[in-house]
Every structure is written in C-alpha cells, then in structure tokens.
Design goal:
Layout lengths: L1 H29 L13 H27 L4 H23 L11 H30 L7 H18 L5 H21 L16
Length: 205
C-alpha cells in the first residue's frame, strides 16, 4: 500500500514542480495584478480554479506522506511522519480558505489569517520531515541515496517559511516539489536491509 501511495505522492510532487515553474516563467510575466493582492499573480476570478488545482496537488502529496509514514519504524520517524502528514493536510485545507479572500489585499485580516494557516502547514511539514529524516539516517533499514531524501525535503520545507514571503515563492515551490519527488521515489524504490541472522549456540552436557 505504501508504494501505491508514494506513486500518487510522486505525481502530485512532480505537478507541483511544473506548477511552480509555470507560474514563474509564464503567469507572473503576463500578470498585471498588483503583488499587494492575495490572488497575485492570478486575478481574483482565476484564483478559484488555481486554488482548487493546488488543493488537488496537496491531496496527492498528503497521500504520499501517508505512504512515507507507513514505512517509518522508529518512534521519532513515526512522529515526524505524522507531523508532515498533518502539515500536508493543513496546506490542502488552506487552499479552500483562499477562495473567499480572492479579491482582498495582503494587509487585510483574511489574508493575514490564511497566510498564517499556510505557514503552519509548511512549518509542520518541515519539522516533521526533518525529524523523520534524522530518524532515517540513524536507521539501518535505509541505504543508498534514499536515506537522505526525507532530510533534504524537510530542510527545504523549513527554508520555504522564509521564501514564501518573497517574490521567489514559485521557484521555492518548484524546488519543494523536486525534493518531494525524491522523497516519494525513495519510498517507492527503497530496499530495506535484511536483518542479520541471529547466531545461537547450545552447549550440550
């Protein structure tokens, strides 16, 4: 089951990367919306389908984080995976919270609250994946490049807290998607190290 969920997460992460690149390279240059508006670079009308599409991507990522959580065996890893899953769920819900404030300015109360909601989701994702990533590094069950994927994704998610307040947000989202691609690919391709056989001896009298 966790491998099937990781495939769904991988699709969501890959599309998140494509979305970030598209917004940076196509949508922003063509936009005449003020960057003081919540909907920027979308118009208030186009933000609705954009937010719904983003919600679908967050849902796929959420499923991927559930798959990641399922392969965690150490307590710290399970706690971290649960926090990351909660963060993904909050990001999913935050997209719907964006709909009623599509035509508001960033300094209004609604955008301030929803922005904090997004920030909470990103922070929980970053903290959770970093915790789980450290647990993975300490676990003998993960080998090869796969053992670094969770930590890299977690660290970048934490960096995203700062990036989200700048004009580089779409680029940051694209990189965020790439790190999640690596994470879900790691879950999909990992080959747990086989447990070493126990050696027992019996002394016969």
């Amino acid at each position: 089951m966790n491998r099937k969920l990781s495939v769904l997460g991988l699709v969501g992460a890959a599309l998140t990367t494509v979305s970030g690149i598209t917004i940076e390279a196509v949508v922003k240059p063509a936009s005449d919306v003020s960057d003081k508006m919540w909907s920027y670079p979308w118009t208030s009308d186009s933000l609705v389908p954009a937010s719904l599409a983003n919600a679908a991507l967050h849902l796929l990522v959420l499923l991927g984080t559930i798959g990641f959580l399922q392969v965690m065996t150490q307590r710290a890893g399970r706690v971290g995976g649960a926090l990351a899953t909660a963060g993904a769920a909050i990001l999913f819900l935050a997209e719907f919270a964006s709909l009623p404030i599509a035509d508001q300015r960033l300094d209004e109360t609604g955008p301030q609250l929803v922005g904090a909601f997004f920030g909470l989701g990103v922070a929980l994702t970053g903290i959770g994946l970093t915790m789980a990533g450290i647990a993975v590094l300490r676990s003998p069950e993960w080998t090869g490049w796969q053992r670094y994927a969770a930590l890299v994704a977690g660290v970048w998610s934490l960096v995203m807290i700062g990036v989200s307040a700048t004009s580089a947000l779409p680029v940051g989202v694209a990189i965020y998607g790439l790190t999640l691609c690596a994470l879900f690919a790691a879950v999909r391709t990992r080959r747990p190290r086989a447990a070493e056989p126990r050696i027992s001896a019996r002394i016969e009298s």
